[in-house]
Write a structure and sequence with these properties.
The chain has 636 residues and is mainly alpha-helical. Helix content is 76%, strand content 0%. The protein has 26 helices and no strands. InterPro entries: MFS_trans_sf.
Length: 636
């Protein structure tokens, strides 16, 4: 926590500030919060484009990059289904998604800390490189193992791009506009929802199955879309160097580090590894992947729960969870934090606003994957949708959520409170999943599934990105990347749980349902391994197809029931959120300043007076900034 004196400096230009020695006589002196050089460097570079034209250039460049990975992600979701089916391993779709989500959750803290250490654009370029390499490997894979390997490279690049774009959007926005800024990378879904179906149907249809080209073409399209953003940052870097501020910040950092323990070179590999808590990250990834992946592998036409290759990872993953917790507690309870930055910072996890938002992040994707992991397959096989129609329906969630969230962002900019919106959005999910339980298979379900996906997206627009803005409001800019990273990491943890549980239900229940309804073991195994070939062979009114539709409907019903049950803890976390006011200032208006006053040995009236003074100072600064922005906008 920054001390009161440091927090006061951020609002020193205001008329009403806390006196310099307010309550200081009862407190021991505290060190001023040190802003790392990487964060300071980012602030200096971002300041070069603080005018309206610079912001437009940056956000338009962000939009182009997001358009690329958004359209690719929408179509790749479909192509991945056909890829696993072409290997006669359609049921392993959940396994691949679980491994990808686990890898992404572990990579997020690593990527975010690299961003603070080396810079946003440097890590973005590396992410683009991984994205391209993974795309090439996936497109050329001839078995599911190589496809999964490519998916990991692609996931690192994809995750890195998302993190960098979200951090850039936060760097260039005030807190009350954070929801709107966060939706800029998601805006392409408004377009992609409608053109993605045309792309997938052109490459995958009854006469051709060119999923490989559908994935591979992004190896050269995506880097081209990234060029404008790179050029913007190179120009900002040039202006920052020209101003001399970067050299000054660098000199201050070198001077500070020479007085620190240790004596080793501050950019050494060992130093970087320890600062990023590489041991914690490895334990985190290993525990999740070992524990969750076996659930998606143990089922199928022949169950394997009693086999060693299923039991061993489960035991190892289960045992690694307490090891991770003990390790993180140990390094924070000892004097190691001067060279190890814990994966889960203690001061952030103690804040209800932080861990409640993390809980929401986990359950968002956990709930969504329960109904959405196999939704495309259900639509194509059990509802008789075309390739284009099934792709568009699975994209309706993103389409509606982006429109809703963007409009909400403008509302939040003036209302400046978001908790009530978050609770309302979560409540909508109960209704949406109730519709999904009823409309789960057969041609009659067409309109019901469309309506439920739209309602699901409508609710998501009220709480997915707003919850991210909520967790960012609980910290300062120094810890902003850590807060956003924690939120996104838990988002992928939820994805891992969701794909694992949905995969476990699918692989353990579907084979026996198919056998029960088809009464043909050979045909049941064929449908389970490659449902798309079966759907192209048997018409919608054939007895075999009707038996398969009934089987799919039964399993999808169970998946949706589990999803609606998981909405209960999701709603509980929504009520536990803090309802902070989203001021139109940067995050130097410090939450820590308020907490610092609360920690002082003062009377209740003195604490209230100090907090009110800080709040009034920030409000006056807020009003001046709004007036300045209005004058700039009018060209005065």
């Amino acid at each position: 926590m920054a001390d009161l004196e440091s927090s006061k400096k951020s609002v020193s230009s205001a008329d009403h500030s806390v006196p310099p020695n307010y309550g200081a006589e009862s407190l021991p002196p505290k060190e001023e919060e040190i802003v790392p050089y990487g964060v300071r460097r980012i602030e200096i570079i971002s300041d070069q484009y603080k005018n309206i034209y610079g912001r437009i250039a940056v956000f338009f460049s962000i939009f182009l990059v997001a358009y690329g990975y958004g359209l690719d992600g929408t179509t790749r979701y479909t192509f991945q289904t056909y890829a696993t089916s072409s290997y006669s391993s359609h049921s392993l779709l959940a396994t691949i998604n679980t491994v990808r989500s686990t890898f992404a959750a572990a990579a997020l803290p690593f990527i975010a800390r690299l961003c603070d250490m080396f810079g946003r654009i440097e890590i973005f370029v590396v992410s683009v490189l991984f994205y391209v390499v993974g795309t090439i490997i996936e497109s050329q894979a001839y078995d599911v193992q190589r496809f999964a390997a490519g998916a990991l490279f692609y996931q690192f690049g994809y995750t890195g791009s998302i993190v960098v774009l979200q951090l850039m959007a936060a760097d260039f926005s005030f807190l009350n506009w954070r929801v709107t800024a966060s939706f800029v990378p998601a805006l392409p879904f408004i377009i992609n929802t409608w053109i993605s179906g045309d792309i997938t149907s052109a490459l995958v249809n009854t006469t051709s199955n060119r999923w490989s080209w559908g994935i591979g073409m992004w190896a050269f399209i995506y880097p081209l879309l990234a060029i404008p953003l790179v050029l913007c940052y190179l120009h900002m870097y040039y202006l920052a160097r020209k101003s001399g501020k970067l050299a000054s910040a660098k000199a201050d950092d070198v001077a500070r580090r020479t007085t620190e323990k240790p004596s080793w070179h501050y950019m050494s590999i060992a130093k970087i590894a320890w600062e990023m808590d590489i041991v914690g990250i490895i334990l985190f990834a290993a525990s999740l992947s070992c524990f969750l992946t076996p659930f998606t592998l143990a089922g199928g036409t022949k169950t394997s729960w009693q086999k060693g290759h299923i039991i061993a990872p489960l035991v190892v993953g289960f045992c690694l969870f307490p090891v991770l917790i003990l390790f993180e507690r140990y390094i924070q309870s000892r004097s190691f934090t001067w060279f190890i930055k814990p994966l889960l910072p203690k001061h952030m996890l103690a804040d209800r606003g932080v861990w409640a938002a993390m809980g929401i992040a986990i359950f968002i994707d956990w709930v969504w994957y329960m109904q959405g992991d196999y939704l495309y397959t259900v639509l194509y096989v059990a509802v008789n949708e075309s390739v284009a129609s099934a792709t568009r329906i699975t994209s309706l969630y993103s389409f509606v959520s982006v429109i809703t969230g963007t409009i909400l962002g403008f509302v939040v900019a003036y209302v400046r409170r978001i908790k009530a919106f978050i609770i309302f959005g979560i409540s909508m999910w109960f209704v949406a999943l109730g519709l999904m339980i009823h409309y789960r298979g057969g041609t009659y379900a067409h309109s019901g599934i469309i309506g439920s996906q739209c309602l699901l997206g409508f609710g998501a627009g009220f709480f997915t990105y707003p919850a991210q803005a909520s967790i960012a409001s609980c910290t300062t800019h120094t810890f902003m990347s850590t807060a956003i990273t924690l939120y996104l990491s838990m988002y992928y943890v939820g994805s891992a749980f969701g794909t694992s549980v949905s995969g476990a239900i699918w692989t353990n229940l579907l084979p026996e349902k198919l056998l029960e309804n088809l009464q043909n073991a050979t045909l049941a195994a064929s449908v389970y391994g490659d449902p798309f070939t079966f759907a192209a062979t048997y018409t919608i009114d054939s007895p075999e197809r009707l038996a398969v539709i009934h089987s799919y409907s039964q399993v999808q019903k169970i998946l949706c029931i589990v999803g609606i049950c998981l909405c209960v803890p999701l709603l509980a976390f929504g009520f536990l959120l803090r309802d902070r006011e989203m001021l139109s200032t940067d995050q130097s208006y410090s939450v820590s300043a308020v907490e610092e006053i609360k920690e002082q040995h003062l009377t209740t009236s003195e604490k209230i007076k100090g907090i009110f003074s800080l709040h009034l100072s920030a409000r006056k600064k807020d009003e001046r900034l709004n007036l300045k922005n209005t004058l700039v906008f009018k060209g005065r």
